[in-house]
Design goal:
- This protein is mostly helical and about 60 residues long.
- The protein has a domain of about 40 residues.
- The protein is flat, with a radius of gyration of 15 Å.
- The two termini are about 25 Å apart.
Length: about 60
């Protein structure tokens, strides 16, 4: 169990991995200033979804 998760969510880690995405800076103009290769929000979402479906191909929720 991941004790640093809020109590209502601690059960998520009882049977496997928990992936936490935080502050992805979608459409944050400063990111393009720091890195001209910063990908667009649509591409970020596409990558996240692709990774999710590779890990959980039978997910129906």
């Amino acid at each position: 169990m991941i004790k640093t998760l809020y109590i209502p969510f601690q059960h998520w880690s009882e049977n496997g991995s928990v992936y936490i995405l935080s502050d992805l800076h979608f459409a944050d103009v400063d990111c393009k200033l720091m890195d001209s290769n910063w990908i667009e929000p649509e591409e970020q979402i596409k990558i996240i979804k692709m990774e999710f479906w590779q890990i959980y191909p039978a997910y129906t929720g």
